[in-house]
Write a structure and sequence with these properties.
The protein has 2 helices and no strands. By secondary structure, the protein is mainly α. The radius of gyration is 18 Å and the shape is flat. The chain starts with a helix and ends with a helix.
Length: about 55
């Protein structure tokens, strides 16, 4: 019986994320907020770049 390493690692990451959200909800919300802001900034920069090309 072979254990798929990718599947095991996926479950470990999901379990760690759930544990982190349960143990530190404010910190995890801040982490998600910062990630969202970073993605928004990246999208704005990309849009500005494409707008400059036209």
């Amino acid at each position: 019986m072979a254990v798929n390493l990718k599947k095991v690692l996926t479950w470990v990451v999901v379990a760690f994320a759930l544990f982190y959200v349960i143990q530190a909800p404010e910190s995890s919300a801040e982490l998600v907020r910062n990630a969202g802001e970073a993605l928004g900034d990246a999208a704005s920069s990309l849009a500005r770049f494409v707008g400059s090309l036209v």
